[in-house]
């Protein structure tokens, strides 16, 4: 019984640390941090990251880091939003910020919050 309680506590602490780490990356000072945060947020399927992704969605910074070479923060945000919200933007995503796609996700998120108030 004590072992299972200890394991449960360890899992909870690890999950909380991972959440903080992703939020710190999404608010990070560099494009590499933000792009890494986008990919990690996308893997969680947690909608609590959507507001942070929307906040960064107009940033066109492109990284030269070997892991994400040529990827812009905008691209990573659009891919993450597409996966988390399970909807595709109206225009193809490339390095250049497309305001139609950004507005699409802002509007979609507003409507989603109204119809799914508990999934924030």
What would you note in describing this structure?
This protein is mainly alpha-helical and 120 residues long. The protein has one domain. It has 5 helices and no strands. It has helices at 2-26, 31-44, 50-55, 73-85, 99-115. It is globular and about 40 Å long. The termini are far apart. The mean pLDDT is 85.
Keywords, separated by commas or semicolons:
mainly alpha, 62% helix, globular, single chain, 120 residues
Task: Please specify the SSE layout and strand pairing.
Elements: H1 2-26, H2 31-44, H3 50-55, H4 73-85, H5 99-115
Helix pairs in contact: 1-2, 2-4
- The secondary-structure element order is HHHHH
| Rg result | 16 Å
What is the overall silhouette?
A: globular
The count of helical stretches stands at: 5
Number of structural domains: 1
Q: What percent of residues adopt helix (DSSP H or I)?
A: 55-70%
The counted number of beta strands is 0
The proportion of residues in beta strands is under 5%
User: What is the residue-mean pLDDT, rounded to a whole number?
Assistant: 85
State the end-to-end distance.
Answer: 34 Å
Low-confidence stretches: none
Largest sheet: none
> How would you classify the helix and strand content by structural class?
mainly alpha
